[in-house]
Amino acid sequence: AVRGVSGFAGFLDGTQDVRxxxxxxxxxxxxxxxxxxxxxxxxxxxxxxxxxxPIVRRGYxxxxxxxxxLRSDFKSHPHVIDTAKDDGTGSVPSRxxxxxxxxxxxxxxxxxxxxxxxxxxxxCARESATLYVDGSITGSSIASSSRAIVGVVxxxxxxxxxxxxxxxxVGLEAGQRSSIFRVAPKSxxxxxxxxxxxxxxxxxxxxxxxxxxxxGLGDDITARADEISRWIIAEGSPLALPDGRWDKMAYGIxxxxxxxRAIS
Length: 264
Description:
Blueprint: E1 8-24, E2 27-42, E3 45-48, E4 55-62, H1 72-75, E5 80-82, H2 97-126, E6 130-134, H3 141-145, E7 149-153, H4 163-170, E8 181-183, E9 191-197, E10 210-215, H5 221-234, H6 251-263
Parallel strand pairs: 1-6, 4-5, 6-7
Antiparallel strand pairs: 1-2, 2-3, 2-4, 7-10, 8-9, 9-10
């Protein structure tokens, strides 16, 4: 791929702010805000998308079973979330404060993803142009199968490559992409995926400038992967400075984050 003109018509991202505001006998009481928005590109400027307003949700995240004296009306309030429910297998977080904080963080992340995918599905219902989504799209059957949605993953807790494929992956130069593979996480939806290197890793670690892309499966996915990769590389200008993730951050996503910070 080479740097050129991008075909992305909009950018979707979300943010989260998690704070411990109190504790009850060592049990953390968490207050969190999750938000998501789409910024549309119009005449080379980024503006709020008129198809749907930004979403901002706030609430308490509390492990009900470990906190005594919670009133029933408080427990049933829409802005109070139980973070220690039985997951259906009999498994619940332990009483350890660290385990309860991890459970709260995981639930906040799920709530953030939920509103992000809600906006992605709204875009699918109203637009045919392509939306750049910061993160995975496998949580939505609509987004994961739509030609109007592309997910771009910046973090790499797991690398979808072993052996020779791994050596090829870390050896990618700026402007190159990997071969396409299928990703089908448990309890989620399958997508086509590949890696693209947006910036030279020379003098940096092996994951510098490396992004993993998700798009709907289709017969023309090879041609689409080439086109989408060119668009992603093009989104590297201008640099998303002073963000510490500038090697992987698209300017449109940084703009969306700044917008959310201003309204949340």
